[in-house]
Automatic annotation (TrEMBL):
The active site is at D76. This is Nucleoside triphosphate pyrophosphatase. It is found in: Cytoplasm. It comes from Streptomyces olivoverticillatus. GO terms for cellular component: cytoplasm. PANTHER family: BIFUNCTIONAL DTTP/UTP PYROPHOSPHATASE/METHYLTRANSFERASE PROTEIN-RELATED, BIFUNCTIONAL DTTP_UTP PYROPHOSPHATASE_METHYLTRANSFERASE PROTEIN-RELATED. It is an enzyme of class 3 (hydrolase).
Length: 202
């Protein structure tokens, strides 16, 4: 099925997982990396931080000439554990400690979503929350996973679509949200702006 979407779609993220989810849903976004310094922003709650980061990324890209007239999607994820917001671990040591603290427990993956319509200046934003139940990988399994380098590049030091999938016992909520983007929430936010997601199919 070849068709021309009604609007240009821009993803303000370098996440291959988010891009993959959008493509699987029939969308064909361009990618413009925001360059937002994630460490420079803070909020009272993990959910609030995820939303603030998503809005900052969308706004940074929407202000560029190459995004003129487009719908810009900004997303950011953090893992909430013990009330703390955990993003990407700084190094292997932190990733190892993170996994040892997470195993056998549950955390909440908070993903902020922001859709900004550069044609009208309107935006819609919200946070999706999914509970993640972690298994109990051994110290050796954690060491092997950290050595792979993968946890250094993902929020919460884990992902459902990579090497750590066997260490996740289950989730309660939207699977896509844990990977990086909630398609049902995206549909809702687009509808708030008067746009049907089906009109964006490529």
């Amino acid at each position: 099925m070849n068709r021309t979407p009604s609007r240009r779609l821009v993803l303000a993220s370098q996440s291959p997982a988010r891009l993959g989810l959008l493509r699987q849903a029939g969308l064909a976004p361009e990618v413009i990396v925001s360059g937002v310094d994630e460490d420079a922003l803070d909020a009272p709650t993990p959910a609030g931080l995820a939303l603030l980061l998503a809005e900052a990324k969308a706004a940074a890209v929407a202000g560029r000439a190459e995004a003129a007239g487009a719908l810009v999607i900004g997303c950011d994820s953090v893992l909430e554990l013990d009330g703390q917001a955990l993003g990407k671990p700084a190094d292997a040591e932190e990733a190892t400690a993170r996994w040892k603290s997470m195993r056998g427990r549950s955390g909440v993956l908070q993903t902020g979503h922001c859709v900004l319509d550069t044609a009208t200046g309107r935006q819609a934003s919200a946070t999706a929350s999914t509970t993640v139940r972690f298994g109990e990988p051994s110290d050796a399994e954690i060491a092997a996973y950290v050595a792979s380098g993968e946890p250094l590049h993902v929020a919460g030091a884990f992902t459902l679509d990579g090497r750590s999938a066997p260490f996740v016992e289950g989730i309660d909520g939207d699977h896509g949200n844990v990977i990086g983007l909630s398609l049902p929430l995206l549909r809702t936010l687009l509808a708030e702006l008067g746009i049907q997601i089906t009109d964006l199919w490529a």
